[in-house]
Amino acid sequence: MLKICETINIHYIPDEQLFYDTIDHILENSENESASEIILETFTALLKLIDSQIKEIETKVNIQPSCCKGCAYCCYFPIITTRLEAKLILQYIQSLPEEQKQDILGHLFNYFESNKEQLEKVCSIDFHEDPQFKFKYISEQVSCPFLDRSSNTCKVYEVRPTPCRTYLNYCHPNVCAQSLMPRETFSYEFLHEFYMTALNEVLQEFLYEDEDLGITFPDDVFHIDYLPKLLKEELCNKS
Fold first, then answer.
1. Closest Cα partner for 231 from 165, 168, 156?
2. ∠ CA 133-231-73, rounded to 5°
3. What single-letter DSSP state applies at residue 31?
4. SS3 15
5. Which residues contact 34 (CB under 8 A, 6 or more apart)?
6. Is 41 helix (H, G, I), strand (E, B) or coil?
7. Alpha carbon distance, N-terminus to C-terminus of the chain
8. Which residue from 199, 172, 197, 198 is spatially nearest to 185, judged by alpha carbons?
9. Taking the model in full, what pTM does it have?
10. Could you give the count of Cα atoms lying within 13 Å of 235 in the half-sphere of its Cβ?
11. Which residue in 185, 29, 156, 28 sits closest to 88, CA to CA?
12. Which of 37, 59, 82, 97 has the most CB atoms lying inside 10 A of its own CB?
């Protein structure tokens, strides 16, 4: 794993400009779209760009992740995200065809009902102060709200949070099966800053528009918490 890290450092120089180019392209071609549509389009496009940047790195370094569809060990990790991203994921769900939307919303309702006590326990772990918060959270084996446990697949794969995209295993798949917190995994978390900065730029373009975006700026950008907690709060606010 150390050799892979060293090779990536040699062959890859992060290019923040790609993220700005993406939002510029969207803004230049969004004349007939509402502000909320543009923000959602930007959100999904920047997430796809993270994926493509990782693919580019893997190609240059000649590596392939051992992660595959149906492998869900990391779907029990604590996902910490911004309130903004939780809101945008829910906005994405609302934009889906009715049958798919109702399926996901029903799944979330059942998830929060069946995991109520465990969620209260894990979401009370202080991720700012407790150095063992990851292990404590994972030990409870509470799945991600969007994991379909019948197929071990993600209900919102297209807009899954950045930690789900940037955390990868390049070693044997058993590494994840044999340890709650494998040391051999790799994270491209440095891409998150580029993504959030670009998303923030687009938000500021529409701050003073008449349209109600349902976003509190800048609070939603800087408020971070466990994904299940944020989702439940936002769903309760909408009901």
1. 156
2. 50
3. T
4. coil
5. 211
6. helix
7. 47
8. 172
9. 0.93
10. 20
11. 156
12. 82
